[in-house]
Amino acid sequence: MNRASESFAPLRSVALTSIAFWLTSAAQAQAPAPAAAWQQVLDFDVNLDKRPIGTHRFIVSRHADGATRIQSDARFDVRFLGIAAYRYRHQATEQWQGDCLSAIDATTQDNGRNLHVSGLQRDGRFQLQQPAATAMPACLSAYAYWNRDLLLRQRALLNPQTGKLDALRVESLGQETLELRGRAMIAERYRLHAAQNVIELWYSPRGDWLRLESTTGSRRLVYRLREAP
Question: What is the value of pTM for the model shown?
Answer without folding.
Answer: 0.80
